[in-house]
Amino acid sequence: MTRTLTILGIESSCDDTAAAVVRQVGSTLPEVLSSIVFGQNELHNAYGGVVPEIAARAHAEKLDICVRQALDASRQTLNELDAIAVTAGPGLIGGVMSGVMCAKGISAATGLPLIGVNHLAGHALTPRLTDGISYPYLILLVSGGHCQYLIARGPDDFTRLGGTIDDAPGEAFDKTARLLGLPQPGGPAVQAEAASGDPKRFRFPRPMLDRPDCNLSFSGLKTALMRMRDQVAASKGGLTRQDRADLCAGFQAAVVDVLAAKTRRAIGLYLLENPATPTLAVAGGVAANTAIRSELETVCTEMGTFFTAPPLHLCTDNAAMIAYAGLERFKAGASDGMNLTARPRWPLDLNSPSMLGSGRKGAKA
Ligand code: KG4
Ligand code: ZN
Fold it and tell me: Which residues bind substrate (predicted)?
């Protein structure tokens, strides 16, 4: 018999309060019945980054209405659902706790099963929600908070091939924009400036390319940019529009080169064990960068690998990805119950050594 599953997803691990309803009939392509996202940009803008305490309070205030809107937009009532999925980590702990408590409340009131979802798994499984790709596949998560290469084999089965040891690429784009007086979020602003810049005028480093692994580092690019900006400003008494465009173009070219080289390595490693399923998926806000996207597509073409990237609204933080990851876990028999705990750190691959540091958007896991 064909089984239909309808799952409510809740996400509150950083600065987006989100709820969504996803349905799958049998093993057909799942359908996003609703996806509501309340951003918090205006609450944090004045501080130059996400303030965890402000984020947690805003989540607690907005979660109920967000869930209500997601149910209304999907035309579902709570008793038509099969389960509730909630981000249980990694992320800013106050926000994660708000979401988990909200989900527990609904579960206690309705008796619906509760499923904890790893936020990174939500991103990593999105290409299955949007394109129905099969396991295994290689995924590059590249956003303001994350940067890692993972082999996805199942909803709870990931192998990390490498990741950033410091900043995430989106974080580097945002810092670059701040250093050059461009608006936030920095990625689109830097990309727009770079379009009229000369990528060869400033020589940016290509960090970690001398190492044979899939790890990356982006914090040195920002230091290099600051030095170059100060040199130009000191010699001319300020920056011209062209100087700024050239700095953006040089910075972006360095990010593109590093991601292309490390992706080549990651695909090579992945194909050694998975030659029959040559697929690279990219997810996260930075996947919106046209230079990065087209270079990764070129790398895939060269290596005979299928390339896919979900539409932007499902690349950036949302709850449809959490509902879908919960749906996969539920199908596999998972159910967490009232002892589900919120976790600030939660690596997808427990066998890999933990990555250093914690970023602007919480732990990098
Ligand atoms: O996935 P996302 O919405 O949030 C998390 O980080 O979880 O990603 C946001 C990041 C920001 O750092 C933003 O500057 C970056 O994605 N971004 C871009 C572009 N569009 C968004 N970076 C480079 N180029 C873009 N076109
Ligand atoms: Zn995210």
Answer: 141-145, 174, 187, 289
Best residue for ligand 1 mutational test, from 13, 37, 164, 173 (most atoms within 8 Å of Cβ): 173
- What's the pLDDT at 221? 96
d(CA 171, CA 177): 10
Confidence band, pLDDT 50/70/90 cuts, at residue 364: very low
Q: Please state which architecture CATH assigns to domain 137-312.
A: 2-Layer Sandwich (3.30)
Sequence ranges of the domains in the chain: 4-134+313-332, 137-312
Average pLDDT over residues 285-306: 95
CA 85/CA 66 separation, integer angstroms: 14
The widest CA-to-CA distance across the chain, in whole angstroms, is 74
**Ligand 1 centroid to residue 107 C-alpha, Å:** 33
Candidate from 286, 296, 315, 364 with most ligand 1 atoms within 8 A of CB, to mutate: 286
Q: Residue 177 CA: which ligand 1 atom is closest?
A: 14
Q: Whose CA is nearest to atom 19 of ligand 1?
A: 187
CATH 3.30.420.40 fits 4-134+313-332, yes or no: yes
Question: Would you tell me how many other CB atoms lie within 10 Å of the CB of residue 360?
Answer: 17
CA 266 / ligand 2 centre spacing (Å): 21
Is residue 87 lining ligand 1, measured as CB closer than 6 Å? no
- Is the C-beta atom of 91 inside 6 A of ligand 1? no
Residue minimizing CA distance to atom 22 of ligand 1: 187
* pTM flag (> 0.85): yes
Name, in order, each residue with C-beta under 8 angstroms of 339's C-beta and a sequence gap of 6 or more.
none
DSSP string, 196-224: TS-TTSS----TTTTSSSS-B--HHHHHH
144 appears as a binding residue in the annotation? yes
Question: Is 130 in contact with 347 (CB distance < 8 Å)?
Answer: no
Give me ligand 1 centre to Cα 184, in Å.
10
| Residue 167 is labelled as binding a ligand | no
247 and 221 Cβ atoms separated by less than 8 Å: no
How large is the average pLDDT for residues 304-318?
92
- 155-169 confidence digits (pLDDT tens): 999 999 999 999 999
CA angle 14, 163, 136 (to 5 degrees): 95
